[in-house]
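Hey, I'm writing a tutorial for new members on how sequence and structure tokens pair up, and I'd like a real worked example in the thread rather than a made-up one. If someone can provide the structure for the chain below, I'll link this post from the tutorial.
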Amino acid sequence: MSTHARLLAEALSARTDDQLAALFRRREVRPDASWNDFFDAAEALLDPSSVAKALPRLTRQEAAGLRAAASGGDAGAAAEALRALALLPPADGPVAPSVAAAVAGREIPQPHRPETPQGLDEAAVARAAERAFTTVATLADALLLAEEGPLALLAGGTVGLSEKRRLIDRGLPDDAALLDDVLGLAAGAGLLLPVERTLRLSDAGAVWLRLAGPERWARLVGGFRASLPAALRTQEGGWIPLAAWPDEHPWDPSWSDRAAALVRQARLLGLVADGPEHAAGGVGAETPWARAAREGAEPDPQGLSAYVPAEVDRIFLQNDLTAIAPGPLLPALDLRLRAMATRESASQASSYRFTADSLTAGLSSGETEESVLAFLEDISLTGVPQPLRYLLAQSASRHGQVQVGTDPGSGRTRVRSADEHLLQAIGVDQALRPLGLVPETTADGTAVLTTRVNRDTVFWALSDEHYPAALVDADGAVERPVRATAASAPPSPDDAARYAALLARLREAREEDADAAWLERELEHAARQRAVLAVEVAMPDGTARELVLEVTGFGGGRLRGRDRASDVERTLPIRSILSTRPLEDAGS
């Protein structure tokens, strides 16, 4: 064991639990690491593989400081951070050989020097605002589809092409890379949560969907900022200039792609506008409404709102069963309207179409004929046309022909209908095969379908296939269904709690006599390496004598080795050994 490891072990034992836990997290130490004491911890942290794994996480300043220190210079302003990471010795002195070897030959590329953004013209600002407006609308559509059915994730944690095709088929942009960035924004802001290899709408996402447009944008920018890596954040809570983002982790080969994705997301949010420098490969100039968020204040959508169309709260209902919104409809109204009508086009003016299936879906979601009419009469500038009234009445008369409830006796989900032909159609519907519906006959001779799948899942599956299903309780009364969302992720345990068991073990093993503990470690290491040591031994007469031993074993409080001078085997009690000095120990 090297002297560097001993110094580090002593320094680690003097740190607080919070400091140690923060170190372990940043060095990616497993909470179940099999370390018995601080000497084990020091050796592991100085192991070449552990050091190599830590280097890509260093910021540009930290990398430059470590490189300077490894060359015998001063780490400068990065010294404290590097000591906290156990990459510099706790006091002035040379870096550990394993650290110096890992840094040797690593260069730090020169930072990008993009053109200094010139002033933004009005057209560029307007385009950035339109892009932000479009991004928020696209994200809302993605969240609604995730509410209908979770988005499956691949093993690597990304959304696969088949799921992207589902999104595209439902009206989202036909651009897989853009969808990755939009879904990344949603996940970063906590609007979508990964649950068992799927992305699900979170409680926060459900709330976000009902916010007004400017509030949606502000909440999204706040979530984007909070999810930025620490290297990009400022002490004030904002972010460093976007032009510097690609240079912040010079030794991380994956950082270039990560930084590029973050810059694209910032652009989608309208935080930067296209200009000559963007065309030349730069980032672009900051938009006026980005400044507050960059400086750490609450995102302010006021400047953005001046460039996007105002939201409206009225629509035109037409005889051809369509509805036209003369501008972006208020999100709460849009969500309710889309529960009973299919949106056909989305832009500054959106159109919706009422069909028997869409009205059935609305009734299945908890609406009634009366509530639909009251809603439409309240927001329509043209009243409710007679054809729409007829279609609604017809759909309401059919609704509830299929009832989904729970059999109190068996606990199984039961699907029943007075229309035997409709029940038979459900039983042979290939789209419903995964439900495992089995035909049965009740005690009173009524034909039903039963399954072990839970009631809500069966109900939504039937509704998605446009069957006139209603959710009923044990007494047969119709219930208002609610789509399940993923509860917001619980806060992660703090570092000290996560590493509590490991920290307790290290503290418990700490020896009061550090010199004696260190000597034992050196002797164990020498025995494993069969090293040659100069051993200073206390003699019975009070003098000291140095022996040169080729160590052959250690245990039971005794050191065994061959004396190089007399060529005899000697066994020395540890209590008699005053010090050791390696002579041919390659491990030191």
